[in-house]
């Protein structure tokens, strides 16, 4: 009997797109059955802190808090390059220094960067789907939009500041903005962990190469919250060639994120991303 492995991802378009090559049976692990769970990103961050899932999508900013229990995966990653979450407010309004803002979760990457840039803001956390309405209703003065909402927000709102611009100022420029990735429980056998990661790498690659086939299937099944045109735009941003396997510049960007978090007192230790990957070279040595 095959082992069941829980794989949790967010319900936003890029995560669904990158995972569903497995769901549709185009790619499968060798010795296990993946059981997928979809939940909002902060719920996944909190679940990872509790060790609930074998493999889980997380905000990159969470990873230093779970590094001892979870290995960082090289695939299914989302980085912004000239774009990313947006701090929005109602038109014709001005924000005070201690403005009230809605963020999508304490451990999200956008929350880390926002808190560094706006230390006096009064933060409230809520599901990312509720943030736009909270700003329009005046429950909060501003909010940081993530996922598809960066493309679909109301004409009543306008951008106060791009999180990308905050990242550029803090990082010194020339690095992509790390947003989200995946991690895997360290207690899993190493040879299985390597297979599961390779399965996910293949799934993201297959999805990316077969986008014209997969995207309409997801839309037809009602799995995506946006229409075909917006889905295409969104996948251009967050599920592309750069999502398949992390590059050297992406590792540098992660290291800069963790350096900033450490420098501003959010992390107890300074870590390097590549020190926490699954040692895939083990499989090569094992097969010699």
Automatic annotation (TrEMBL):
EC number in record: 4.1.99.29
Keyword Lyase: yes
Keywords noted in UniProt: Ligase, Lyase, Menaquinone biosynthesis
Family annotation (InterPro entries): Menaquinone_biosynth, MqnD
Recorded catalytic activity of this chain's protein: cyclic dehypoxanthinylfutalosinate = 1,4-dihydroxy-6-naphthoate + dihydroxyacetone
Positions of the catalytic residues: 147 (proton acceptor)
Family to which this protein belongs: Belongs to the MqnA/MqnD family. MqnD subfamily.
Function: Catalyzes the conversion of cyclic dehypoxanthine futalosine (cyclic DHFL) into 1,4-dihydroxy-6-naphthoate, a step in the biosynthesis of menaquinone (MK, vitamin K2).
HAMAP family membership: MqnD
Protein's recorded name: 1,4-dihydroxy-6-naphtoate synthase
Organism this protein belongs to: Halarcobacter ebronensis
């Amino acid at each position: 009997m095959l082992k069941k492995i829980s794989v949790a991802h967010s319900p936003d378009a890029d995560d669904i797109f990158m995972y569903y090559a497995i769901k549709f049976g185009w790619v499968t692990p060798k010795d296990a059955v993946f059981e997928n769970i979809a939940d909002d990103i902060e719920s996944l961050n909190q679940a990872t802190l509790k060790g609930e899932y074998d493999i889980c999508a997380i905000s990159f900013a969470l990873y230093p808090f779970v590094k001892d229990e979870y290995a960082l995966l090289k695939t299914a990653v989302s980085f912004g390059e000239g774009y990313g979450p947006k701090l929005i407010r109602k038109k014709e309004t001005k924000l005070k220094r201690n403005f009230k803002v809605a963020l999508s979760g304490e451990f999200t990457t956008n929350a880390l960067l926002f808190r560094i840039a706006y230390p006096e803001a009064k933060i409230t956390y809520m599901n990312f789907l509720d943030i736009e309405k909270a700003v329009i209703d005046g429950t909060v003065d501003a909010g940081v939009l993530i996922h598809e909402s960066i493309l679909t927000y109301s004409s009543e709102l306008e951008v106060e500041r791009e999180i990308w611009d905050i990242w550029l100022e803090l990082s010194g420029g020339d690095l992509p903005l790390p947003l989200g990735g995946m991690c895997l429980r360290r207690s899993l056998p190493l040879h299985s962990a390597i297979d599961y990661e390779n399965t996910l790498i293949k799934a993201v690659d297959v999805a990316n190469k077969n986008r014209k086939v997969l995207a309409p299937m997801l839309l037809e099944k009602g799995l995506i919250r946006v229409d075909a045109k917006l889905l295409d735009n969104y996948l251009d941003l967050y599920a592309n060639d750069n999502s398949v396997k992390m590059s050297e510049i992406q590792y540098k960007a992660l290291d800069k994120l963790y350096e900033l978090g450490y420098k501003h007192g959010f992390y107890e230790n300074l870590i390097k991303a590549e020190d926490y990957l699954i040692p895939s070279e083990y499989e090569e040595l094992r097969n010699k």
